[in-house]
Amino acid sequence: MADTIQTQNSVDQIEFPPLDPPPYHVGIIMDGNGRWAKQNNKSRFEGHKAGTENLRRILRSSVEFGVKMLTIYAFSTENWKRPPFEIMGLMKILENVIDKELDELNRNGVQLRHIGELERLRPVIRDKVLYAIDYTKNNDKLVLNVAFNYGGRDEIVHAVKKVIAEKIPPNEVTEEVLSRHMYTADCPDPDLIIRTSGEFRTSNFLIWQAAYAEYYITPTYWPDFDKGEYYKALQVFNQRDRRYGGRNE
Ligand code: IPE
Ligand code: IPE
Ligand code: MG
Question: Residue 248's pLDDT is what?
Fold first, then answer.
């Protein structure tokens, strides 16, 4: 354990060469907190706390590497299937992050946003999220989209309902129009989606937006996914040949 922390700290100090170019928008499926906890003889709650701690490192590294937008999957619409005790813990962590980290996030130029359905959250948490969004709205160093109570299919249904409510005629419904009705309305599509802990699935994350995203999957559990691993993911991304269905001669 001590070794792991030491390694992570020393990697944090390393200055990596600039990426040419860094991806603009990175999505992260922060998976593996539970397995990390088990491996380290800790409770799942401690696993989620360690995952949150790691997020600070990845946020710092994102700014350093030149990533401008980060979308993190923190709680999915399917995560309500978990035991109430675990759900409560995850809600508490979100609340604590806003209570304790908001000023530092703000000082570091992070603009917080939320994607997903806020309605189902307790009013006190909902209000804190809305406050944090408003408080950081003028920051421009890094946009952090927090996907909390987010599901890609839910988002598409939500967008279609909005389009219908606005009485947009069917012949005017284009991909562009649907995109503008997603939670991510003013965000460019993600360039790279990272998934930690080795699962090869989207788990309902940005399924509309990631049509042409590059995927990077690592077996490393989220709390151990450090700056060095992150840099490697971005380097691998830089070697990908993105064709978007066309041809690169
Ligand atoms: C990811 O860690 C965090 C959330 C889904 C909230 P998990 O809790 O899914 O960890 P594993 O997949 O069980 O290891
Ligand atoms: C995806 O992880 C959701 C988050 C990281 C918030 P899950 O652990 O919920 O995904 P599955 O169940 O393995 O597909
Ligand atoms: Mg999981």
Answer: 77
- The CA dihedral of 71, 83, 85, 42, to the nearest 10 degrees, is -80
Q: Which domain holds residue 75?
A: 22-156+191-237
The atom number, within ligand 1, closest to the CA of 31 reads 1
pLDDT in tens, 211-221: 999 999 999 99
What CATH number does residue 97 fall under?
Answer: 3.40.1180.10
User: Within a domain: residue 227?
Assistant: yes
Enumerate residues 6+ apart whose C-beta is below 8 A from 68: 24, 25, 142, 143
Q: Which of 20, 27, 21, 58 is nearest to 191 (CA)?
A: 27
Q: Does residue 180 fall inside a structural domain?
A: no
> Both tokens of residue 183?
């939670």
Cα 77 to ligand 2 centroid, rounded to whole Å: 10
pLDDT interval class at 21 (50, 70, 90): very high
